[in-house]
Design a protein that fits this description.
The structure holds three protein chains of three kinds. In chain A, helix 4 (85-97) crosses helix 12 and helix 7 packs across helix 11. Chain A is 33% helix and 21% strand. In chain A, strands 3-2-4-7-1-8-12-11-9-10 form a ten-stranded mixed sheet, with helices on both faces. Chain A has two domains: 4-116 and 205-227, Peroxisomal Thiolase, Chain A, domain 1, CATH 3.40.47.10; 127-201 and 229-349, Thiolase/Chalcone synthase (Peroxisomal Thiolase, Chain A, domain 1, 3-Layer(aba) Sandwich). Chain A is globular, with a radius of gyration of 19 Å. Chain A contains twelve helices and twelve strands. Chain B has helices at residues 8-11, 33-43; strands spanning 19-31, 48-52, 59-60, 76-80, 83-92, 105-112, 119-123, 136-141, 154-159. In chain B, the strands form two sheets. Chain B has a five-stranded antiparallel sheet with strand order 7-6-5-8-9, with no helix packed on it. In chain B, strands 3-2-4 form a three-stranded antiparallel sheet, with helices on one face. The radius of gyration of chain B is 24 Å and the shape is elongated. Chain C is mainly β. Chain C has one helix at residues 22-34; strands spanning 8-20, 37-41, 47-48, 65-68, 71-80, 93-100, 107-111, 125-130, 141-146. Chain C is built from one helix and nine strands. Helix content of chain C is 9%, strand content 39%. Chain C has one domain (22-146). The chains are: A alpha/beta, B mainly beta, C mainly beta. Chains in contact: A-B, A-C, B-C. The interface between B and C is large, with 37 and 41 residues. Bound molecules: zinc ion (ZN). Zinc ion (ZN) binds next to loops of chain B.
Chain lengths: 351, 174, 150
């Protein structure tokens, strides 16, 4: 196995609607920032991989338009996933393991403001029996939350504490969309939104973009004083049919965590891509995280959730803490699909 | 596909369902962003404005805000003439859904003078079989009171009578 | 450069899809049109509704279509206070996972309690309210309602 590390990370100031800029205008400064922080020029990039979804803006093959942000002429080696860009990191990591690239640029962007994201995301479901019901992700997550509450896997109070802690943590994150000095009691005092979920239990609707640069071996050491080495990375998927899954646990996360070696050492920091508060509790249990791990110090997806990007942001947030020396070993998680259907786990370490 | 074993009540049903309709409609608000807004706002004033890359000096129209070669913002605005050269074209002879033009008509790539990327528009006031590469054309605008922030403010391009452009002047855009 | 006046325009995308069902989903849709519900027997003997072509555990092709009841038990639910465009009901309702009588795996549909969240509970029994006109669609079940509601 080659040593591969994240050596730089950049993101937008996430917002409910970035109206001044179209997708490429929103993305381009982030790509430039990530490349600059890596201390390279773009001609040193061997491979570019991105994550985004056409349904957000209602434009087929919209990712082709945003390629302008990386300047794809003369022609570049490029790929795209119709998923969170955390999976683009995985693809780049595989390509680098094969020895086909030493430096890779990965970016994700999601601009949900042009459409109705709850309606658009129903299009990822079974077209015969679920799409005609327009079963939206909030309603489905609320069903999952109810299952977890009914079985005692989570409590309303614990969910409210996750939401309040996320908002408090986000006060230190200049890029977060939502933040505030919130207590669990403040959350519990609000009306339900889609019962049993309250607004604070649900990720906001976000426009945003993020980018990281990966580098292998000595190239990473040359470019970065303290690279965030990817020590393990794995992703697992469950069936799409909700009824056949146990929604109160995350079996796919547990397997990915074991494969990535989460339990092989102490975890200083965990950034979990949980768009709903109960999902953070389910994920923390599946990852086996204890009280000595700081969970979502950035505020997590509950404070900014750019679709197809928030998972990559989790990797960047952990990597940044390793790079700047405030963490030695961390875990980043990304999710995709309804009710944590698919999960990616990545262990990042300093040297 | 293996044979499906049906319960009694489904065995003798006339015309089993083999196909279902799943229509869907999604509503978006298209946000043009800065560069496209600048371009279309100028069109509403009967002006064509491109943007120049600070690195490679190429002029893009319509601008997207970023140079696709260099990945840098294209902030310098360039006022463009309303004449250009046909670099390629096609003759549309087939009706298709949503089409508004009378057949046959010509869609062409037109390299406006001083730009480095051709713009797609219609060619009219000339028989379709006489349109050719290198033909010099000029924009025909809608009446001033109908101008708006849309490329439909240009009705079409038509030959402007100049001799054909030298191939060397547009060879990089074919 | 000065900030431009930003342009926005409506952009409507319509997908007029029609899909072939294959025999398994076709059997489910045919049954709905005829006013009853079927599932299929999985490799481990569980009855799955709606039926699936391949076993979710083993991926083997499933072939046995079985009739289940049109009433069952709510396994879990959420309460939609403000229905979205396209939702099965236009007043507050529940999305629920419902384990139909004779089935082992719950299916998703809507439950109408007349807008009363207090009438919803995990474990409650609900029954399908059939649409007046049926064409072979999941919407042939208009929604479910508390058993004995009428
Ligand atoms: Zn350039």
């Amino acid at each position: 196995m080659r040593d591969i590390a994240i050596i730089s990370f950049a993101q937008t100031h996430h917002a409910r609607a970035i109206e001044q800029e179209n997708e490429v205008e929103m993305l381009q400064p982030v790509v430039v920032d990530a490349i600059a922080k890596a201390g390279i020029t773009k001609d040193r990039i061997d491979f570019v991989c991105s994550g985004s979804a056409d349904y957000l803006a209602g434009m087929a093959f919209s990712f082709v338009l945003t390629l302008d942000a990386v300047g794809p002429w003369p022609p570049i080696s490029e790929s795209h996933v119709d998923m969170d860009a955390a999976w683009a990191v995985y693809e780049a990591w595989v390509k680098m393991q094969m020895g086909k690239a030493d430096i890779a640029l990965i970016y994700g962007y999601g601009k949900s403001s042009p459409g109705n994201i709850r309606r658009a995301l129903t299009r990822q479901l079974d077209p015969y029996t679920l799409q005609p019901l327009w079963a939206d992700p909030v309603s489905l997550a609320a069903i999952q939350a109810r299952s977890a509450l009914d079985t005692g896997t989570v409590t309303t109070e614990a969910m409210a504490e996750v939401a309040a802690r996320s908002w408090r943590s986000a006060q230190d994150n200049p890029y977060a969309q939502l933040k505030g000095d919130l207590a669990a009691a403040d959350v519990l005092a609000t009306e339900p939104f889609v019962d049993p979920l309250r607004r604070h239990d649900c990720a906001p609707i976000t426009d945003g973009a993020a980018a990281v640069v990966l580098a292998a071996g000595d190239v990473a050491r040359e470019l970065c004083e303290r690279p965030a080495w990817i020590r393990g990375i794995d992703h697992r998927i469950e069936p799409h049919m909700l009824g056949v899954r146990d929604l109160t646990t995350s079996a796919s996360t547990a397997i990915a965590a074991a494969k990535a070696g989460v339990g092989d050492g102490p975890i200083d920091v965990a950034e979990l891509h949980a768009p709903f508060s109960h999902q953070e509790l389910i994920l923390a249990a599946a990852l086996g995280l204890g009280d000595d791990t700081a969970i979502n110090p950035s505020g997590g997806a509950l404070c900014a959730n750019p679709v197809m990007t928030a998972g990559l942001v989790r990797m960047g947030e952990v990597a940044q803490r390793v790079i700047d020396g405030t963490a030695d070993r961390g875990v980043a998680h990304a999710t995709s699909g309804a009710c944590l259907q698919q999960n990616l786990v990545c262990v990042l370490e300093g040297e | 596909m293996s044979d499906i074993v049906l319960p009694d009540r489904l065995r003798d049903v006339a015309e089993p369902v083999r196909r279902i309709r799943t229509p869907a409609r999604l509503d978006y608000v298209f946000m043009a962003g800065k560069a496209t807004s600048r371009f279309l706002n100028a069109v509403a004033e009967k002006r064509l404005v491109g943007q120049r890359c600070p690195v490679c000096r190429k002029v893009y129209v319509p601008p997207r805000g970023v140079c696709p070669t260099d990945g840098v913002p294209t902030e310098e605005e360039i006022e463009l003439p309303h004449v250009g050269t046909v670099t390629s074209f096609c003759v549309v002879n087939v009706q298709f859904y949503g089409q508004v033009m009378e057949l046959p008509y010509v869609s062409a790539l037109i390299l406006l003078d001083g730009t480095d990327i051709p713009l797609m528009h219609l060619i009219q006031e000339v028989p379709a079989d006489q349109v050719h590469m290198g033909m010099r054309v000029e924009a025909v605008w809608v009446p001033d009171e109908e101008l708006g922030p849309t490329l439909e403010s240009i009705k079409y391009f038509r030959p402007n009578g100049e001799p054909d452009a030298d191939y060397e002047t547009y060879k990089d855009n074919v | 450069m000065a900030e431009p006046e930003l342009l926005v325009a409506p952009n409507v995308i319509e997908y007029p899809f029609s899909r072939t069902t294959g025999p398994m989903i076709g059997a489910f849709m045919t049954a709905l049109r005829e006013g009853f519900i079927v599932g299929c027997t999985a490799a481990d003997g569980r009855v799955i509704v709606p039926p699936v072509e391949y076993d979710p555990d083993t991926a083997e092709a499933l072939t046995e279509v079985v009739e289940v009841g049109d009433a069952g038990v709510v396994a879990s639910w959420s309460w939609v206070r403000e229905p979205l465009d396209g939702h099965p009901l236009d007043r507050p309702f529940a999305f629920a996972l419902i384990t139909l009588d004779g089935a082992d795996v719950p299916m998703l549909h809507a439950v109408d309690t007349g807008g009363d969240v207090a009438a919803m509970a995990t474990g409650m029994r609900v029954r399908a309210r059939w649409a007046d006109e049926r064409e072979g669609s999941i919407l042939d079940i208009a929604c479910f309602e508390p058993e004995g509601a009428r």
